[in-house]
Design brief:
Elements lengths: L5 E11 L2 E2 L4 E2 L1 H13 L4 E6 H6 L1 H8 L4 E8 L14 H9 L5 E4 L1 H5 L16 E3 L3 H11 L14 H9 L8 H5 L3 E5 L1 E2 L21 E2 L2 H13 L4 E6 L21 H14 L5 E4 L4 H6 L1 H14 L4 E8 L3 H6 L6 H15 L10 E9 L6 H16 L6 E6 L7 H5 L9 H19 L5 E11 L2 E5 L7 E4 L8 E9 L3 E6 L1
The structure holds iron/sulfur cluster.
Organism: Ignicoccus hospitalis (strain KIN4/I / DSM 18386 / JCM 14125)
Pfam families: Radical_SAM (PF04055)
GO molecular function: catalytic activity; iron-sulfur cluster binding
Length: about 500
């Protein structure tokens, strides 16, 4: 086929350890693809539909495919979970339907291009066939497909510089106007600061794909700020600095050479201050992953770096820590980051810097804890170690915004995949899961006690007379209001009672 001049992007949503693209979040893929097409020729056209929009109108989708040279499907929700804002494209059958109804060739991008569809925690994905599979940076592939045609587009797996991606992301910011959450005003755009993980130097964690991306490559702070400026001009008001393995080491001169880079508070100040200067009335500026091992190894520098974040961000932020397990045997076999005492150091420091309450009702910055079940080396003792960590946190009066306990996703190419072909969760898992639920309920009562006023909530769903609202945020708290309210409305509510993962509230 000839050059691609018209393209339909179908966003089947992505959820990766470093990158969230389920509405109201928009990850980099669609922006890169849109921008790359326009960079080649500004008269090229790109349409954007979410998979939920396609599901509502399959006939309209089929008609639109007649007008384009290529359908680009983005998919790959690698992290299992239910989402309030949309249902990811997970089933191979649904992807087959997209292909069957399309008059144009179909390309697949995002994690699904490498790992298939259908895999959730504890299972392996199944491969899917597409006319083209884009496993590398989508900007590069689309750029070449627009120049020479898809047959000649190379799938450069990983990049060693951001030259084209930077330009594509800035040019592609325009695609936000076609996103359903754009009009609501809660569209939250995922920002990337670097690729890969510092720990690739030492092999990285057994289950993780990030070390396979090679040594980290950093984006120039000016390009990130330029991208935010472009997005802000189009009306985006919420930003999530989530596309990197550890925000604390962005800008560190050691990133790429050391397994545990020393954080650079100055680099973070430039980044956050730069964003604020071009987006003065933003509603949300949040982070995502923070490596607890960075904080425990560099406590003073990390504290200063966290202070910079809290100085410029918006409240309700979460430093998501992939602790995974503090069982020494599991930590060793899987090359994890911290043992119990080091995890506590990290949680204490984040509390020290971030636990003050902010204007939107939530503490400024709290830790989030991720545990993984089914890692090689796990035994029934594993749950005792993890439980001991939670107990210590509670005894010390520390706050944690949320705990995620998920089953291992076995991904080909990872160390865990070569260590085990089947995810086996040890005895005692169910008891630990229930313990975590109860623990979270007690914790959430402290994080949002009755009477807390939560501002800037957006009603995202109404079901059986209950409205579900969330603030635009990195890890938003779900607020239930027993009253049907217009979807998309912005409200203020007062907390009545906390459950384990949500709160019951009344309109203010
Ligand atoms: S620290 Fe481990 S889990 Fe986190 S990105 Fe690096 S290798 Fe992956």
């Amino acid at each position: 086929m000839g050059r691609v001049r018209r393209m339909l992007i179908v966003d089947g949503y992505t959820d990766e350890p470093a990158g969230l693209g389920v509405p109201p979040y928009l990850d980099v893929y669609a922006r890169e693809a849109y921008g790359a097409l326009k960079l080649v020729d500004s008269s090229n056209e790109a349409y954007y539909l979410t998979i939920d929009e396609v599901r509502k109108d399959w006939v309209g989708y089929a008609e639109l495919t007649k007008k384009v040279d290529l359908v680009l499907v983005i998919a790959g929700a690698l992290v299992p979970g239910k989402y309030l804002g949309g249902e990811p494209l997970r089933s191979p059958q649904e992807f087959e339907r997209l292909k069957f109804l399309s008059s144009a060739p179909v390309a697949l991008a995002g994690p699904a291009a490498s790992f298939g569809l259908g895999g959730t925690g504890g299972s392996v994905s199944s491969e899917v066939e597409a006319d083209y599979r884009i496993r590398g940076r989508v900007a590069h592939w689309v750029y070449e497909a627009a120049l020479w045609g898809p047959e000649s587009a190379s799938d450069a797996l990983w990049i060693d510089n951001y030259a084209l991606v930077d330009k594509a992301l800035i040019r592609g910011s325009e695609v936000v106007k076609q996103h359903p959450n754009y009009k609501v005003g809660n569209l939250t755009v995922e920002l990337e600061t670097y690729s890969g993980c510092a720990r690739s130097v030492g092999g990285g964690c057994s289950f993780c794909l990030a070390p396979l991306k090679g040594r980290p490559v950093q984006r120039d702070v000016r390009k990130i700020v330029e991208e935010v400026e472009a997005l802000y001009k189009f009306g985006v008001r919420s930003f999530r600095l989530g596309r990197q393995s550890d925000i604390l080491v962005y800008g560190s001169p050691d990133l790429g050479t050391e397994e545990w880079p020393r954080p650079s508070p100055l680099a973070l100040r430039r980044l956050f201050q730069g964003i604020r200067s071009v987006a003065p009335s933003l509603i949300t500026l949040h982070i995502d992953n923070v490596n607890p091992g960075t904080i425990s190894r560099w406590p003073e520098e990390s504290e200063l770096a966290l202070k910079e974040i809290v100085r410029w961000h918006t409240p309700g932020d979460v430093a998501a820590m992939g602790i995974e397990s503090v069982d020494p045997r599991v930590v060793k076999i899987n090359n994890l980051k911290v043992l119990l005492d080091d995890a506590l150091v990290a949680i204490r420091i984040v509390n020290k810097v971030g636990r003050n309450r902010g204007w939107n009702g939530l503490p400024h910055l709290l830790p989030g804890i991720n545990f993984i079940a089914g890692l090689p080396g796990e035994s029934k003792e594993t749950w005792e170690y993890n439980k001991a960590l939670l107990d210590r946190i509670e005894e010390e009066g520390l706050l944690v915004r949320r705990v995620n306990l998920r089953k291992l996703s076995l991904l080909p190419g990872t160390q865990a995949y070569s260590l085990t072909k089947k995810v086996v969760v040890s005895k005692g898992y169910e008891g630990f899961r229930k313990y975590v639920m109860k623990w979270q309920e007690r914790m959430l009562k402290k994080v949002v006690p009755p009477g807390t006023v939560l501002r800037n909530l957006v009603v995202e769903k109404v079901e059986k007379g209950v409205s579900y609202a969330r603030q635009p945020a990195s890890y938003p708290l779900t607020v239930e209001i027993v009253k049907p309210l217009p979807v998309g409305s912005w409200i203020t509510a007062v907390v009545k009672r906390a459950h384990s993962r949500s709160v019951l509230a009344e309109l203010r």
